Structures are given as C-alpha cells and as structure tokens.
Amino acid sequence: MRLLPPLLFLISLGAPLTGQGKPTASGTADPYVGTFSGNGGAISTRKQGASYTGTITANGVDYPFTARKVGRALVGTFLAQGQGFMFSAAVQGDQMTFLANGQTTVLQRGTART
C-alpha cells in the first residue's frame, strides 16, 4: 500500500489550507476570506463567485469595496466620500498586507476590536 504525501492526505480529508499548508483561523480554504484587524482599522472580506466584497473600517467609518484576485493578491477599489480608490492586499498565513494611497498597513486575522 502506497502512502499519500502529507499535503495530498490533508486535501483528501478536506482540511482547509492556506498557501503554507496550515488551516486558517477562520476555517476556510481561501486565505482572503475573514476579518483582519490592527492599527485601529479592520477589513472584512467575503467571496462572491470570482470576486470579493467587503468592508474596510478606518477611523470608525465603513467603506465598501470590491476586488478580484490577480496573481497572489487582491486588487480592487473602495468608495470613500463618493470617490473610488484603488488598493491591493496580500495574505501570508494570518497576516494581511494592505496597500492604498501609498500607505501600507499590516493586519492580523481575527475579529475587529472596538
């Protein structure tokens, strides 16, 4: 009897994985889905078909966004005061690096603190 390599074994069990082969804290196989928070802000993301939607919270204000996966990052736009702004986000493990308007913010997976 031949043993499956560990990664194939986990996939055959249906274990959710990140790109590093670890289950995500949110229990989903998609590393972008969930809530990331830190530095007084938060990003909550859900997947709808091939695109992503959600909310960026900064300074107590919620900004809706839409995005698509391009390579290993999400690229999209959020609305603030009726204007669209571009952003990109990359996730490694439970850490999201968010780039918008020339500023980089690092967020950790988990519920937002108020």
Task: Please specify the SSE layout and strand pairing.
Blueprint: H1 6-13, E1 34-38, E2 41-48, E3 51-58, E4 61-70, E5 73-80, E6 83-92, E7 95-100, E8 103-109
Antiparallel strand pairs: 1-2, 1-8, 2-3, 3-4, 4-5, 5-6, 6-7, 7-8
Summarize the structure.
The chain has 114 residues and is mainly β. It contains one helix and eight strands, in the order αββββββββ.
What features would you describe in this structure?
The chain has 114 residues and is mainly beta. The chain contains one helix and eight strands. It has one helix spanning 6-13, and strands at 34-38, 41-48, 51-58, 61-70, 73-80, 83-92, 95-100, 103-109. Strands 1-2-3-4-5-6-7-8 form an eight-stranded antiparallel barrel. Strand 7 and strand 8 form a beta hairpin. It starts with 5 loop residues before the first helix and ends in a 5-residue tail after the last strand. Residues 1-24 have low confidence and may be disordered.
Low-confidence residue ranges: 1-24
Q: Kindly state the mean pLDDT as a whole number?
A: 78
Radius of gyration, CA atoms, in whole angstroms: 16 Å
Please give the number of β-strands. Answer: 8
Count helical runs: 1
Structural class: mainly beta
Give structural attributes:
114 residues, mainly beta, 1 helix, 54% strand, disordered N terminus
